[in-house]
Amino acid sequence: MAGDTQPVSHSVEPRSVRLSNDHLKALSTLTLLLTDTVLLVVAFVVGYEAREVLPFFPRPEEQPAFDRYLPTIAVHTITIVLMFYFSQLYHLKRAFSRIEQLRHLIGVVTLGTLLASGTQEFLLQASTREAVYPRSLLFYVWFFSVVLTVVGRELHRRGWTLLRRRGVVRDNLLMVGDSEVARKITEHIRNSPELGYTIVGIVTAEEKTGEVLGYPYIGAYDDIPRLIDDRQVEQVIVALSDYRRDELVELINLCQRGKVDIKVYPDMFSYMAGDLNVDDLGGTALLTVRDIALRGWKLSLKRAMDLIGATVGLVLLSPFLLITALLIRLESRGSVFYWQVRMGLDGRPFPMIKFRSMRQDAESSGRTWTVQNDERVTRLGRYMRRSNWDEIPQLINVLVGHMSLVGPRPERPMYVQQFQRQIPDYMVRHREKSGMTGWAQINGLRGDTSIAQRTEADRFYVENWSLWLDIVIIIRTIWQSFTRSNPHAY
């Protein structure tokens, strides 16, 4: 009836604004660019004021007014931001090394600061805005530009990592393959929400039912184009343990749609080959599969670093070593140090020294491998093992030449014999001196972890050695020791 008719409402419900993934990524880059810009300006301001406070250089008798430097600030900021852009520092990676980023930032800021200094003199020379840009001010501006951009980028990364953990800025990822390699990658992604990936499913050569680690099989290779479109896939990882060249080419062609990023896990040969080089042998081209990196003058350089590091370490840490020795004697009966035969360079045995962290009769039962919450470890020993302090006496091994600061960790002869029968190329790790720490250890491969993965990490180190890689490993080891952040240190 007419009287029962309700009035029609023409009001529109408010709609929430929801940014797309592309918009959020662009916003992330934009906020990083703004952060760099603001902090570079602040760095110049702080550097200008620091000349009056910090005693690195003589205080200037007469310093031009700050407003005289406004054009210089503009040149400085624009130059370094452009250097960041051309150095791909605005191409944001989900996983990266902070140490590598620091090295990259220092290099780019240094070059950018020098370039800006020359540019401002060229542009402002003989103009009304010309101002003296002394080397002392240049140093302060460079120093604070490095510090503030590093801090700003770390805060920016932490903010967006937090958003990814909460489900913002996540990419849909399609996994191709269900090999053991694919399972490990899938597990790593599942346990690392900060990477910002959402696995939509797994495809294999032939369609399957079921799931892997909670992620379903959703089709076969031929379904990849449709799945990319239907599931809005932005990342594809091809992780096959064995494949033919034509099969891989076909898979990549199927994945090439829109803005999809494609990542391929290398096959076993490519992995073993590492960085392939082409050598010439009397006009015949040969592919170098393995070329040990540490040889010639590099050996002398590494030995010099070992001698300096071991000497300085023993001198500076000697009071703490003495205190540790006293605490060990007070806590339990037995010797302060623990000597054990290990195998090092070329499989030669040597006596490795450690602080004793277990009971004196720890191996009387026949157990030799340490596991988590091992009841044989003393209270002081548990702390030392978590912080790697029990390994510090090995600086003596380094000093006398048994070991290096960095290298594959040495094992006992009985384990070496066992592992070389089980793991191909296990003895490659013995082509270099054993180390107090190594690439495997800083990546969590220590204690009761996979020997095969540890061997792969050691092989990578042996074949890709550089002085910078050693420095990175030492810095990360010190950081993990102070923060006790290595989950397998027990």
Structure explained in plain terms:
The chain is an alpha/beta fold and 490 residues long. It folds into three domains: 21-165, no CATH class; 171-265, NAD(P)-binding Rossmann-like Domain (Rossmann fold, 3-Layer(aba) Sandwich); 297-361 and 372-483, no CATH class. It is built from 15 helices and twelve strands. It has helices spanning 21-50, 70-86, 98-124, 135-165, 180-190, 224-230, 245-255, 268-273, 297-331, 379-387, 394-400, 413-422, 439-442, 451-463, 467-483, and strands at 171-176, 197-204, 211-212, 215-220, 235-238, 261-264, 277-281, 284-288, 337-343, 349-355, 404-406, 435-437. The strands form four sheets. It has a six-stranded mixed beta sheet with strand order 3-4-2-1-5-6, sandwiched between helices. Strand 7 (277-281) and strand 8 (284-288) form a beta hairpin. Residues 1-18, 268-285 and 287-291 have low confidence and may be disordered.
Q: How do the helices and strands line up, and which of them pair or pack?
A:
Layout: H1 21-50, H2 70-86, H3 98-124, H4 135-165, E1 171-176, H5 180-190, E2 197-204, E3 211-212, E4 215-220, H6 224-230, E5 235-238, H7 245-255, E6 261-264, H8 268-273, E7 277-281, E8 284-288, H9 297-331, E9 337-343, E10 349-355, H10 379-387, H11 394-400, E11 404-406, H12 413-422, E12 435-437, H13 439-442, H14 451-463, H15 467-483
Parallel strand pairs: 1-2, 1-5, 2-4, 5-6, 11-12
Antiparallel strand pairs: 3-4, 7-8, 9-10
